[in-house]
C-alpha cells in the first residue's frame, strides 16, 4: 500500500473541518430519519402477517364464490330436469331454498374483501409516506416476466373487463355486424 | 333457413362455470350436441378431429386465446368457413374491430342473456 491514497487530491479534502462536520451531521440526521421511516414501514409485519392474510382471504373468496355458483347451478339444473307432476311445486321450492342458502356466501365474502381492502389501504399509506420521506423516484426496467406479460397482453388485445361495464354497448356491436 | 339443432357446437372457455351456463342455454334452445374446450389449443385439436357447425369462444384464455384461435381457424383451408361467435368480457372498440377483421361472425359482450345468444346463433347459422 502506498501513500498516495492518504494524500489530499481534490476539492472535498480541502474543505474546512467545520464544513465537513456539518455535512457529516446532516448525513447522520438523514440516516436517523431514514431509520425512523423504514421502521414506520413495518415491512416485517407486512410480509409476515398482512400479505399472507390478504392471499388467504382472497383464496377463500374464490373458493366460496365457486362453491356457491356450483350449488346455484346444480339447483337450477335440477329444476330444469323436474318432471311436470303433482310434486313439481314442492320440488321447485326446495331447490329455491337451496339457492337462498347458497347466496349467503355474499355476506362472508363481502367481509373478507373488506379486510383485504383495508390491508391494501394500509400498504398504500405506508408506502406513500416512505416514498415521500426518501424522495423515491421510479427507475430501472420492469422484470422480464412482467415485460413478457405486458407484451402478450398488448399484442393479443387482452384488455380485460372495463371498470364501469362494457366499453362498447352490445347494440353498437350489433350495428357493426348488421 | 331453419336452425339445425343437431349440429355439433364447440364451446371454448377456461371457466367451467361459463361453459356450463352456455351449455344450459344451448340445451334450452334445443341443441344437444355440445362439446367444450378450455383454450384455443385444445379447441383447435378438437376442430381438426370433428366437423363443428359453430364455435362459441371466449377471448382471454391461456395458452392460446380465442382471438388466436379465430385467426388459426380462418387461416385453415378445412376450417375457414366454420361459423365463429366470440363471447367475451373484452368490450373495447379495438377488440371488436380486430375480431371483425379476423373474420368473426358475431360478437357478444359478457354478461349476456339467453335471448342475445339465441339471436346471434340465428343470425350466424340462419333461422
Automatic annotation (TrEMBL), chain A:
<protein>
    <submittedName>
        <fullName>Uncharacterized protein</fullName>
    </submittedName>
</protein>
TrEMBL record, chain B:
<protein>
    <submittedName>
        <fullName>Chemotaxis protein CheY</fullName>
    </submittedName>
</protein>
<dbReference type="InterPro" id="IPR001789">
    <property type="entry name" value="Sig_transdc_resp-reg_receiver"/>
</dbReference>
<dbReference type="Pfam" id="PF00072">
    <property type="entry name" value="Response_reg"/>
</dbReference>
<keyword id="KW-0597">Phosphoprotein</keyword>
<dbReference type="InterPro" id="IPR011006">
    <property type="entry name" value="CheY-like_superfamily"/>
</dbReference>
<feature type="domain" description="Response regulatory">
    <location>
        <begin position="8"/>
        <end position="125"/>
    </location>
</feature>
<feature type="modified residue" description="4-aspartylphosphate">
    <location>
        <position position="58"/>
    </location>
</feature>
<dbReference type="GO" id="GO:0000160">
    <property type="term" value="P:phosphorelay signal transduction system"/>
</dbReference>
<dbReference type="InterPro" id="IPR050595">
    <property type="entry name" value="Bact_response_regulator"/>
</dbReference>
Amino acid at each position: 500500500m502506498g501513500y498516495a491514497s492518504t494524500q489530499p487530491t481534490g476539492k472535498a479534502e480541502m474543505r474546512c473541518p467545520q464544513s465537513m462536520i456539518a455535512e457529516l451531521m446532516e448525513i447522520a440526521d438523514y440516516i436517523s430519519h431514514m431509520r425512523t421511516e423504514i421502521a414506520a414501514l413495518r415491512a416485517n409485519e407486512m410480509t409476515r402477517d398482512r400479505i399472507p392474510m390478504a392471499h388467504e382471504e382472497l383464496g377463500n373468496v374464490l373458493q366460496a364464490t365457486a362453491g356457491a355458483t356450483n350449488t346455484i347451478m346444480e339447483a337450477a339444473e335440477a329444476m330444469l330436469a323436474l318432471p311436470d307432476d303433482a310434486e313439481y311445486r314442492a320440488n321447485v321450492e326446495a331447490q329455491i331454498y337451496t339457492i337462498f342458502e347458497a347466496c349467503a356466501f355474499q355476506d362472508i365474502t363481502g367481509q373478507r374483501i373488506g379486510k383485504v381492502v383495508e390491508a391494501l389501504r394500509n400498504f398504500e399509506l405506508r408506502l406513500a409516506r416512505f416514498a415521500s420521506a426518501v424522495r423515491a423516484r421510479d427507475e430501472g426496467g420492469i422484470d422480464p416476466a412482467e415485460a413478457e406479460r405486458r407484451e402478450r397482453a398488448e399484442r393479443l388485445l387482452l384488455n380485460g373487463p372495463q371498470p364501469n361495464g362494457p366499453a362498447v354497448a352490445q347494440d353498437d356491436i350489433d350495428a357493426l355486424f348488421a | 333457413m331453419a336452425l339445425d339443432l343437431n349440429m355439433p357446437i364447440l364451446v371454448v372457455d377456461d371457466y367451467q362455470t361459463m361453459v356450463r351456463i352456455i351449455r344450459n342455454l344451448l340445451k334450452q334452445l334445443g341443441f344437444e350436441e355440445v362439446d367444450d374446450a378450455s383454450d384455443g389449443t385444445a379447441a383447435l385439436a378438437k376442430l381438426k378431429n370433428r366437423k363443428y357447425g359453430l364455435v362459441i369462444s371466449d377471448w382471454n384464455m391461456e395458452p392460446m386465446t380465442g382471438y388466436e384461435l379465430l385467426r388459426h381457424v380462418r387461416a385453415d383451408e378445412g376450417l375457414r368457413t366454420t361459423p365463429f361467435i366470440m363471447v367475451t368480457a373484452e368490450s373495447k372498440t379495438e377488440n371488436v374491430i380486430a375480431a371483425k377483421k379476423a373474420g368473426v361472425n358475431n360478437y357478444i359482450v359478457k354478461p349476456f342473456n339467453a335471448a342475445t345468444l339465441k339471436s346471434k346463433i340465428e343470425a350466424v347459422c340462419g333461422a
